[in-house]
Design brief:
- The complex is a heterodimer of chains A (about 220) and B (about 375).
- With about 220 residues, chain A is α/β, with parallel strands linked by helices.
- Chain A is about 35% helix and about 30% strand.
- Chain A has seven helices and ten strands.
- Chain A has a six-stranded mixed beta sheet, sandwiched between helices. A four-stranded antiparallel beta sheet of chain A has the order 2-1-4-5, with helices on one face.
- In chain A, strand 9 and strand 10 form a beta hairpin.
- Chain A is globular, with a radius of gyration of 17 Å.
- The two termini of chain A are about 20 Å apart.
- Chain B has about 375 residues and is of the alpha+beta class.
- Chain B folds into two domains: about 180 residues, no CATH class; about 170 residues, no CATH class.
- Chain B has a six-stranded mixed beta barrel with strand order 2-3-10-5-7-6. In chain B, strands 8-9 form a two-stranded antiparallel sheet.
- In chain B, a hairpin with a 2-residue loop joins strand 8 and strand 9.
- In chain B, about 40% of the residues are buried.
- The chains are: A alpha/beta (about 220), B alpha+beta (about 375).
Chain lengths: ~220, ~375
């Protein structure tokens, strides 16, 4: 279970999050919605250990991210969290295979094991036939599916997706949502940041943020 | 993991081939400068030190520099009365034009006695050396170096042939064994004639120098003292002569060579350092350009050491690769020099290895700052950079 306790995040000219409390159960598919500047992306980065709160703590079960050293936090991200970003953040000069393989290399997984894990994830997102293609040569939908395979390759229990369909057309957006839904079906905790009400409606729970605070929390 | 980092670094380097080459250029020039300069200096001087050391440590050279001082061969030869001295070879040196048919050339003429061959440890590859009777009877005979033989006789056997020196014919009675080149020139381009005949060519009976062989290596210092006393007594002027032992000359030569090599290596090392600064500059640019890549890697769990290692590895590979290319160019440069100068200088391997090791050190030193800068980037800042 992910527990957010009294999280605040201040920047020089604004306060993105204000003493926010939240609990997210394991294996749920949760959407965090809100207008631009409501603090949803800031919350996601803090949940993923990419950013630190000004005050408050984030717990994964009983483990506090804020009590971890930089090295521990890096290892935690590698093993426990998979990120999917709107801009894909693939390395264009590398192949699809090399992009997906990267977290495994960082996690010091042996080469033979890496091969089967990468191919399994590429098959799951339907891109095995493109494993040797350069990331720069892919379409938007393929790029996002590659990013999802990369997020899943270390089999993390938590997937954090920041506007994953924001740069995609409706058809590819629907494919990505199906993949996220499937992850939740496999027992992963999936947290989706989105502007899109239709995408949010496909989740189990919608948390609405406004001015850095939770103003609505609906479970279906 | 380490191999993977090396592969990633190589990929990053080859993705920007032109920029990588230009970055390496400073190192390439630096290594070329170090290796070529030191190799040429040491190679050129090794010839002369080899020829000096081959003469043995018991050889003493006495040179009379004052032309007003007259010492005869007989006076010099009287030194053999001392037990510390085993033999003395008086020498009259001059340069003369030597002819053989239509062929001619200017060669160094050494007028001496049969003792010269013992003292200088020289032998003939064909024919004979000078005999005492040649000196006594003013025989016009000559023992010539291999270069003279090739120049004047081509592939024909020189022994028994005739050469002309100062309008007089000389019969070639022997050809010296090949000795090779040194900084002072070729030792194979001299002509040895009887001392008594040389006296007639110069028209005076003074000798310009004499070589002395000490009875054994333990008595070299005694022999030097005896010669110095003899010369002082004869010339009454300390500045009119100089007495040198080959080992002293060799030591001085080695000192000069080592100092020269160090000086040249030091100057060239500066260009290596400048090359290192070039690498640091490009690595800093690379860190800025690849901020997003660093952010992605950090987001998926890369630790600071992973990022640090990758950039450090890139800097080291650039530096070492530059060093290796520099070595290749140095080899070509030395080969071209050998072709032009007609020498047989080899690449100094110690300097080559030292240059590569220095390149690795430069890679680490100048790659550390950009690598540390990259590793300290926060993932969120790195991802934010790209919007």
């Amino acid at each position: 279970m992910i527990t957010v306790k009294q999280i605040s995040r201040s920047y020089p000219h604004c306060e993105a999050l204000k003493e926010t409390d939240l609990q997210i159960q394991d294996g749920t598919f949760t959407a965090i919605v809100g207008r631009s500047g409501s603090g949803k992306s800031t919350l996601l980065r803090i949940l993923g250990g990419l950013d630190s709160p000004t005050s408050g703590e984030v717990f994964y079960d009983d483990i506090s991210l804020q009590k971890m050293s930089e090295v521990q936090l890096a290892a935690f991200r590698n093993q426990h969290i998979g990120f999917v970003f709107q801009q894909f953040f693939l390395e264009p000069q590398y192949t699809v295979y090399q992009n997906v393989e990267m977290p495994l290399i960082i996690g010091a997984v042996p080469k033979r094991e890496r091969r089967s894990l990468v191919e399994k994830q590429l098959a799951a997102v339907g891109l095995l036939h493109k494993k040797n293609a350069l990331a720069s040569s892919l379409s938007g939908g393929e790029k996002q599916r590659t990013a999802i395979a990369r997020a899943m390759v270390c089999d993390p229990p938590v997937i954090l997706a920041d506007e994953p369909c924001g740069s995609l057309d409706t058809e590819n957006g629907a494919i990505v949502m199906q993949l996220l839904r499937a992850m939740a079906g496999q027992g992963k905790t999936v947290i989706l940041i989105t502007h899109n009400r239709e995408d949010a409606a496909k989740t189990d729970r919608i948390i609405t943020l406004e001015d850095g605070q939770v103003i609505d929390d609906a479970t279906f | 993991m380490t191999w993977k980092i090396i592969k990633l670094s190589l990929k990053a380097i080859f993705n920007n081939k032109m920029r990588s080459f230009l970055t390496m250029l400073g190192i390439i020039i630096g290594v070329m400068a170090v290796v070529i300069l030191v190799s040429i200096t040491q190679g050129a001087t090794s010839g002369i030190t080899d020829s000096i050391s081959s003469m043995g440590s018991d050889l003493i050279t006495a040179t009379i520099s004052d032309e007003d001082v007259s010492i005869s061969a007989e006076e010099a030869e009287s030194l053999t009365e001392y037990r510390a001295i085993s033999s003395v070879a008086p020498v009259i040196s001059m340069n003369q034009t030597v002819k053989k048919g239509t062929e001619s050339g200017s060669y160094s003429i050494v007028g001496t006695t049969a003792e010269y061959f013992t003292v200088q440890d020289e032998s003939v590859q064909s024919g004979r050396i000078l005999a005492p009777s040649d000196i006594e009877w003013y025989t016009h005979v000559a023992v010539i170096g291999t270069e003279v033989a090739t120049d004047l006789f081509g592939t024909w056997d020189a022994v028994g042939g005739t050469i002309t020196i100062d309008d007089r014919n000389y019969t070639v009675v022997g050809v010296l064994a090949e000795q090779g080149r040194s900084l002072a020139g070729s030792d194979d381009s001299k002509i040895i004639i009887p001392y008594s005949v040389a006296e007639r060519i110069t028209g005076q009976s003074r000798i310009s120098s004499f070589y002395v062989k000490a009875a054994d290596s333990d008595r070299v210092n005694s022999a030097i003292n005896i010669i110095e006393m003899f010369l002082l007594r004869t010339t009454r002027d300390e500045d009119a002569y100089s007495v040198n032992n080959q080992s002293e000359v060799l030591d001085t030569m080695n000192d000069v060579t080592n100092t020269m090599s160090l000086l040249l290596a030091g100057i060239a090392a500066i260009s290596l350092i400048v090359g290192g600064i070039g690498i640091m500059n490009i690595m800093l640019v690379s860190v800025t350009e690849r901020t997003r890549e660093i952010g992605i890697r950090k987001a998926v769990g890369a630790k600071r050491k992973h990022i640090m290692l990758q950039f450090l590895c890139e800097a080291c590979i650039l530096s070492i690769m530059g060093g290796l290319i520099g070595l290749l160019f140095s080899y070509c440069g030395i080969s071209v020099y050998n072709l032009i100068a007609g020498s047989i200088i080899a690449m100094n391997l110690t300097v080559a290895f030292a240059a590569i090791a220095f390149c690795a050190v430069i890679g680490v030193l100048f790659g550390s700052y950009p690598a540390a800068k990259a590793s300290k980037l926060q993932p969120i800042d790195a991802l934010h950079t790209t919007g």
